[in-house]
Amino acid sequence: MRFIILGALFFLLLSCYQPERDCKKFKTGKFEFKALVGTELQTTTFVRNDSIEIDYYKGKADTSSIRWINNCEYIVQKINPKSQAEKKAIHMKILTTEGDKYTFEYNVVGEQNKQKGTAVKVGSQ
After folding, report:
1. CA-CA distance, 29 to 50, in Å (whole number)?
2. Residue 76's domain spans which residues?
3. Keywords of this protein's UniProt record, alphabetized (predicted)?
4. 13, part of any domain
């Protein structure tokens, strides 16, 4: 009986834990995002202000508009899309923050397939 009470108390304490989410400090600045593409680790650098994000990938720059839903979620959409796929808006959600990095999930608006990533703040604007 004592183990059941201790187990329930332990579970109750764990269920109250919420990860840190100080999203405001990640609304603007310069960031890096690394992703495995095939077998190669690719790095994207992006600079974000309150309404515009400029991505730098493989020597090319691409500008997107940003519409913030709340401090931790925003919609990003390319300003000059070159294909039908690029016309689709992306929903970004910051899940956790820690120091100078944040973990996020993203998906095409209207689709359920979510992916995760981690971005590191490497400077202010």
Report:
1. 10
2. 19-123
3. Isomerase
4. no
